[in-house]
Design goal:
327 residues, alpha/beta, four-stranded parallel sheet, 11 helices
Length: 327
């Protein structure tokens, strides 16, 4: 698809060839590297963006991802090879502020179509004094550490894909960008986007109905990925860590959570598949709580409870229903 690929420099060709079936094309729909096919070549920054590109693009796109399955996307560092390949794609789809290394590479890239999902919906500040913490008073130490990845956006929460309504808004924007960049297939992109919108609307309805009547509205998570989901469905997320999954909670924060578990009837501490569950399990043991997985869907692996976005979100709903005592 990319007309410029005939003029790739020797260095870029070597880099692309060396990369081959490696990191960048690990999740490609075929074995070709980005920018090297006769389809509309899209580089996605991580799984939620990859899923949108594949669902909307269908047979007309070749989608590759910068984040390998099982890799924690917040910490991604790009190789020179990946950066070279990105420059040969027709479009790049990312979520600004989640992966600073990707943001920087895209800024320097001459890719014609740059799609920032953060501009397609409204990001909110679930930061240092969290609106979704009961009491809303603490500014935990972890939030100081989170700023290395959220610095430019002043702790705007990037985890919008966990709210099906906001994710649908992003999907609509991606569809319009694809239609404009590849008008020959605009009708198919529109058809695919409409089908995806129906799936996401169905998911939203399932969450609304499943979480409408529960014993508790409070859930504990490993890191603050579920602020948008909590807000959408009238729940309260209490995160052990901040927006950064690798930050460590203070002893005072752990004690606060133990006390809140008793006060709010919390039964379960959720952890996730891509980061250590040590802190979550320690808190659960000390407070006499159960543990379960609530997947922030930053990547799909063999450990994921489902093989795509919709399946894992449905699994998350079941886990929430069980933990909150849904009627």
């Amino acid at each position: 698809m990319n007309v410029r690929r005939r003029h790739i420099s020797g260095i870029a060709v070597t880099a692309a060839a060396a990369l081959g079936l490696g990191t960048l094309s690990a999740c490609s729909s075929d074995s070709a590297a980005a920018g090297n096919t006769d389809k509309f070549d899209v580089v996605a920054s991580f799984y939620p963006m990859q899923y949108l590109a594949q669902q909307i693009g269908g047979e007309h796109v070749n989608v590759t991802t910068l984040t390998e399955p099982g890799q924690e996307p917040h910490d991604l560092e790009l190789s020179a090879k990946q950066t070279a390949e990105m420059g040969e794609a027709d479009a790049v789809l990312h979520l600004k502020s989640l992966q600073p290394a990707v943001d920087e590479a895209i800024t320097q890239s001459d890719v014609k179509t740059k799609i920032d999902a953060a501009t397609l919906t409204t990001l909110e500040d679930h930061g240092s004094v969290e609106h979704d913490h009961a009491g809303g008073e603490h500014a935990e130490e972890g939030h100081a550490e989170e700023k290395h990845s959220e610095e430019e956006e002043h702790a705007l929460d990037p985890h919008v894909w966990l709210d099906p309504v906001k994710y649908a808004e992003i999907a609509e924007g991606v569809a319009k960008a694809f239609e404009k960049a590849d008008p020959d297939h605009a009708a198919d992109y529109r058809k695919n986007a409409d089908a995806l919108a129906k799936k996401l609307a169905g998911l939203n309805t399932a969450y609304e109905e499943g979480l409408a009547d529960t014993d508790s509205k409070v859930f504990f998570t490993n890191h603050a990925a579920f602020g948008y989901l909590a807000e959408r469905y009238g729940l309260t997320q209490e995160a052990i860590n901040g927006l950064d999954p690798e930050s460590e909670p203070s002893p005072a924060r752990i004690k606060e959570l133990q006390e809140e578990a008793k006060a709010d009837g919390v039964t379960t501490v959720f952890y996730e598949t891509l980061v250590s569950d040590k802190t979550a399990k320690t808190l659960a043991k000390d407070a006499g709580l159960k543990t379960d997985v609530l997947d922030p869907l930053e990547g799909i692996t063999d450990k994921s409870k489902g093989d795509d976005y919709l399946a894992v979100m449905e699994s998350n709903l079941k886990a929430l229903e069980a933990a909150l005592g849904a009627k």
